[in-house]
Amino acid sequence: MEAKTLARVTRGLLWLGGAAGVVLLLGGLYFHGGVQGLFLEAYGVGPEGKAGVLLFLTLMAGIALWILGELIGVLATVERDPFVEGNARAFFRMGLAAELAGVGFTIKCFTLFTFMTAVCALVMVLSGLFALVLAQVFHRAVLYKQENDLTI
């Protein structure tokens, strides 16, 4: 598959995933009582803990949507020139957001432990570290590209 086609398909899937995430979050957690009840039951939380669980899920969904938005922005540059300083900064922001989500999931492990919370914590921390390393790689590539452009 050609790189441009792959980038377009991936960008489309990210848009679709982001839209589905918003619809599921708003529709499922806030407007549909049955889905909200399933989440609260899965966490073993009664009405007194409802606000905390909804706040946590909303914050984590917001971070996920932010990361999706950054990825969509990075993929938009693949067809032209991906090695720009904006992409290095985007990967850095994604890394920080993922680390923040990892901290949030880790804290939740101590308050309302579920196996999936522990898995999410581990995945977010590792994804954050990967994105931070990728930010450094892109930053270095930008420096090499700028140096090469000056010598030609």
Description of the molecule:
The chain has 5 helices and no strands. α1 crosses α2 (33-43), α1 runs antiparallel to α3 and α3 runs antiparallel to α4. The relative contact order is 0.10. The protein is 86% helix and 0% strand. It is elongated. It has 152 residues and is mainly alpha-helical. It has helices at 3-31, 33-43, 50-76, 85-111, 115-151. The mean pLDDT is 87.
Give a short summary of the structure:
This protein has 152 residues and is mainly α. 86% of the residues lie in helices and 0% in strands.
Q: Which features would summarize this protein structure in a list?
A:
single chain; 152 residues; mainly alpha; 86% helix
Radius of gyration: 19 Å
Largest sheet: none
- The gross shape turns out to be elongated
| Mean residue pLDDT | 87
Order of helices and strands: HHHHH
Structural class call reads mainly alpha
Question: What is the tally of helical segments?
Answer: 5
Relative helix content: over 70%
Strand content: under 5%
Please tally the β strands and state the result: 0
Question: pLDDT below 50 for ≥5 consecutive residues: which ranges?
Answer: none
Distance linking N and C termini: 32 Å
What's the topology here?
Blueprint lengths: L2 H29 L1 H11 L6 H27 L8 H27 L3 H37 L1
Helix pairs in contact: 1-2, 1-3, 3-4, 4-5
